[in-house]
């Protein structure tokens, strides 16, 4: 099972480090990262494996958005099934 | 692995274009709550609703978090109370409404539907009691929704019921005059009512439904409007294709949520309702979709054609995305709940007659329309009769939810707050249909061949 973590916010040093640390804390294994900076805005999409999460998935969602609030970023973790449903027949 | 553009598309649909699941509605059968004693009946209904829907709100919130998509409403619909009201008097029926209201408050749901009667062919004692109790029931409760089916293509139109509903709408407006006649926003008069509709105010748990069922209503006018705008200059074939593709994606999310809710709650999945339901939020408007196709204002000539195409394309895209489709399934055009419709009315582009024409090609009908408070009951009945006739003859659902806003005149605005929005009071044709309405009786069922 996978989840998509999206991160949007003003660019600053160490965003990836902080988000990765947040993932590691909950046992989410990062499979893929793609990121870009456009007009000072940082956008990152991470695909993480959530098989070995140490907390229930919904707590992971809460933790990531709390991290976002602390760091002034918008962080959302979403279960992969919503993307599978929408974009695969 | 996912493609980046797909991920970004989903995220922007939810965050910027206001894609949401409009409602998860649990239908609950009350048949075996039947009881001679009104007090015991109320207790049984309360216990039934509370036990079946106990986990509804929490489950909805869990799913919302898991997929990162807002689920705006969690609601309950019940067996039409008229079927339970045979042995009740008006006070007893109002007592049941209060019971439902209390259950809704305690469950944390914003509406409970099913204070309803089906009288397309005639009245039972229970439906007579229920209908005459509607004004008081809606005045005494906050979250109870009521509906009355007055016609069907197979039965024709019960004009006695149409005449009575004109009065009931007036009376409901008057009894809730302190709050902009809001009672009328919770009262729908139907033709060919669907029995599995998850949307309020017209939801009830139909007689052919299982004990308990989960129905889901999707939304997403903002997503469709943005997709059309992105297409830029293209012909209508391409726009129809774009709407289909978008509706497919929206509905797939509805299906996902419905399946998950059904599994988590241990309740069978009923249907996904493919409606494009607007909200008063800017950008979440069906009128804007029509305007994005190239109409200067919703309501101008061309609007009915644009709406017909939209409605059809939404269904074509949605049907393939869900295993069971039902409910109302089509574009909604409630005036007060749609920022674009409100603007169109204010600038004079959209009037009641055009709205009536539009309802011939889309879902539901004259919905959330404020009219002057002094509109006579027989004029209201006349509006109902016209709209219902469109449904009956065309073998489709139509409905009327009019608010004769007490003390208000044309040009005033009535505000209901929240998802119900605000409505500019619209002019109505004041020539009297009183003699026609006063005749009563039934308009026979229309012929189903020789179609022209």
List the topology elements:
The complex is a heterodimer of chains A (89) and B (452).
Chain A: E1 2-10, H1 15-26, E2 29-38, E3 41-49, H2 57-71, E4 73-79, H3 81-87
Chain B: H1 4-15, E1 21-28, H2 38-53, H3 56-67, E2 71-78, H4 90-107, E3 112-118, H5 125-140, E4 144-152, E5 156-158, H6 159-175, E6 187-191, E7 212-218, H7 221-231, H8 236-265, E8 269-273, H9 286-292, H10 303-319, H11 339-346, H12 352-359, E9 366-372, H13 377-393, E10 398-405, E11 413-415, E12 422-424, H14 434-438, E13 442-443
Parallel strand pairs in B: 1-2, 2-3, 3-4, 4-6, 7-8, 9-10
Antiparallel strand pairs in B: 1-7, 4-5, 5-13, 6-10, 11-12
Q: What's the domain count of chain B?
A: 2
Mean pLDDT of chain A: 92
* CATH fold field value of chain A: Alpha-Beta Plaits
Structural class by secondary-structure content of chain A = alpha+beta
The string of secondary-structure elements of chain A, in order, is EHEEHEH
Largest interface: A-B, 21 and 21 residues
- How many alpha or pi helices of chain B? 14
Count of distinct structural domains of chain A: 1
- Assembly context of the chains: heterodimer
Radius of gyration of chain B: 21 Å
CATH topology of the largest domain in chain B: Anaerobic Ribonucleotide-triphosphate Reductase Large Chain
Largest sheet of chain A: 4 strands, antiparallel
Q: Work out the helicity level of chain A.
A: 25-40%
Q: What is the residue-mean pLDDT of chain B, rounded to a whole number?
A: 94
Determine the strand fraction of chain A and express it as a percent band: 35-45%
- How does the helix and strand content of chain B classify structurally? alpha/beta
Number of helical segments with 4 or more residues of chain A: 3
Shape of chain B from CA axes? globular
What is the strand arrangement across the widest sheet of chain A? 2-3-1-4
Which runs of chain B of at least 5 residues are low in confidence (pLDDT < 50)? none
Radius of gyration of chain A: 13 Å
